[in-house]
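HUMAN: Spend a minute on the protein record below and explain its fold to me.
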Amino acid sequence: MANITNVELSAATPSKKPRTDDPPVKNKALNAALAASTKANPPRPKEIHRLDYAPLRYKVTKVSLDFNLFERRTVVESILTVEKIDTPDSVTTAEDAKEAKNDVEDGLYLDGDEGVVALNELSVDGCDTLVLGVDYILKPGKLIIKAETLRRGACNNPDGNMIVRSSVEIVPEDNTQLSGLYKDGSMYCSQCEAEGFRRITYYPDRPDNMATFEKVRIEADADSFPVLLSNGNLNEEGEVKGSEGKRKFAIWHDPFPKPSYLFALVAGDLGSIEGTFTTMSGREVILRFYSEHKNAGKLNYALESLKRAMKWDEETFGLEYDLDLFNVVAVESFNMGAMENKSLNVFNTSCVLTDPVTSTDAEYFRVEGIIGHEYFHNWTGNRVTCRDWFQLTLKEGLTVFRDQQFSGQINNCAAITRIQNVLIVRGSQFQEDDGPMSHPIRPNSYIAMDNFYTSTVYRKGAEVVRMYETILGTEGFRKGMDCYFLRHDGCAVTCDDFLAAMADANGVDLSQFARWYSTSGTPVVTYSSTFNQEKGLYQLTLSQSSRSEEPLLIPVAVGLLDKETGREVTPTRVLQLRESVQTFDFADLKGDVVPSILRNFSAPVKIVHASGLVDESYLAFLATWDTDGFNRWDSAQSLYAAAILKVINHEAHDASLDRVLKTFGQTLKDVGISDDSIRAFTLTLPSESTLSKAVNIIDPPAILKARNYVKQRIARTFKYDLQLAYKRLTAAIDADGVTFKVDGASVGRRRLRNVYLGYLCTICETGEEQKESATLATEHFNAATGMTDKLAAFSILASMSGEGSIAREAAVEKFYKDANSDPLVLNKWFSVQADANLPDVLDRVKKLASSHPDFSLRNPNRCRALITTFAMNAAAFHDEEGRGYEFLGDMLEQIDKINSKVAARTTASCLIGWKKYSETRATLMKKQLQRLKDMPNVSNDLLEIVTKGLE
């Protein structure tokens, strides 16, 4: 053991400046030994339970940090002002409570990853030299300063607080996990949510410790890192006097208390653009977006999106930005899409950079939505944050709902936005509900918190928030939001606090609604109905089933259509299903009606008829007449799916196909549909993934074959009409000129024309048809002036075989050449090839992964583009010999050593659903899960997923 000497850290700048040639500090041996011991004998993963939460006993209230960035050596010095909280039985967690009882009785628990953070110096003001084992304990993941040591420090401080000082070293260049402080190319960047701050320094790294970061000083080489950013406002910057070499410093101050997960630091040689926004109170806010110099021209759309988001939040919720500066930085290597760090948002380049030549329409809307999401977090996440990570949906579900509303309203495309969001809910979230990772939106336990940034927490959480608005109305929801901020601004709170604000502001009892927070799985609502012609009375009976022991409160939006004319006779009415079985009356009707149920997807449930049968005539009626845009689309999707499922199951399907063809033809030619995007979505067949959820045993090649069969039947039946419609849209697009527009009309035309292209190119059974399809797709590809059209054609060409093979290879070569090394375009190039419908796609993917110079497992975006996309290419991945599973296992074994979070997320939906497959496939999938579980030093992130997957 080594003695720890005091270090003097002044309030302005540390008196001691580390140099690149400083001798090794004496405590490095201790840290190295501890890290080596932990690696050789990794501690058994601990399951953390929600009900074990205990409040802090010692809280950090003020923070000063000093970063000195050197090549392969960063020194972090911290000054923590610590206050004792007189809360009975407060420690940190139940596990820490046991440690406190057994080891130290009481103390300050600081989190730290000893494999990354090397402790140099530690001191408490007013105390003599601290002795390891006497004054503090250093153990895996924790540094515990004993209570007696803290009391001695408090006695020597006039206000009774304690001042804890430390100095640590980290090596961001070696941080391939991209959690904490890491180096991405020539840029330093941080990512602290959920538990990354402990990879920077020792600190109570939990969301309920909200502290004021009074000073963050960053020092680095002036030429290499002219831009030095952190949270809050810039107080001072300049040249470091008397330093070796030319060095620069910047000092930042954030006046708003925040948890450690919202801390951010960026240092680099960056280009930028700037704008301003005048708030509703008249303050001018400077908006700056940073990126590599070559990408600065691709930031303008994001900047304008931010202005729209700020204005929308003021107008919709009365929420005003609270600082004078808002910074956004684009980073290529980033685990997530973006991060809402207070006033310094960090974005994955894929979520912030746009350009007409390299970005699709979908990417423009995605950028706008994510910009909105991260900005909206300033209030729903930053000003009011989570007490603990089990409450994650409090900030994420609420903010996803807010960004969905923003996207739908700002672009006047609420129906399209709703369809796109429900596709995600019914896709990844319903699948999660039905698998081994099923959990409520407020989970009860976890091993690795990063595994619970899930579709359930985000997407289903947003649906739960949407149900508040559906039940309370827009005004009632706004009243609840106002109450929430009035009560909890500056606090770390729980989902129960949000529910209480909604209930109290509206004078309603929402105790039954609270069950949504603790119920996993997807509820099922069953319906049946009767009509009494004599009384003009229609009765709709709804029943519910879920994993909840007691009934949920489910808002079911219903409208009624005249059975003869299709005219809407009863506008949308929200029924509150509170009982296991409940009957609702609709009186004074002139004739029989057809119900349109669960309009706008008013609750995240499955809706089925009491008979258990699919009434295709009913679906065809709604697909033709329903006035609810979402339900009209949904009915068409269900009708298409019913026909495809009959083909899969080798059932008689002629009548079903006739209905599909009739409905498709009506939609194709319906002049009453003025929105091309609505028409495009309604004409699109359900995906293979969607269809797989409707079968008992998933057979991916059979699903693909059946879907293609139905698509070809449609294409052949309406070939002439599709060709005319395609040419008509081509003429309209050409007449619009070369100026790129991301407005509803332009996007709709491109979207619909690409749907037509997809159908026409499906006709490719004979050699002549293959040539014809290849020619059409190639012409579309070469004529494309934007990425939307180019990518649509490339995706079709990439799957061509036979007489289309030459066109395929030419497109692959041209797309790569046109990419001109642009990382985001190269991601598309890799992704399209991984998703191709070719018999040798696995061999192609293996070759790209093993030998292509532009592929790297260290880049999360590139991993997702190639590896994850291939794993989602169901027919190829689920090869009956298990070659796809084995390849994924090989990749995950490598990725887990580099970035465990990427490994865990890649595995989740690809292997753990083995119970839905044939015994042959299931056995091979489990084999890879077991292999990953048995890996030496497997990460907790991956271990938790594969362990649950094997259960």
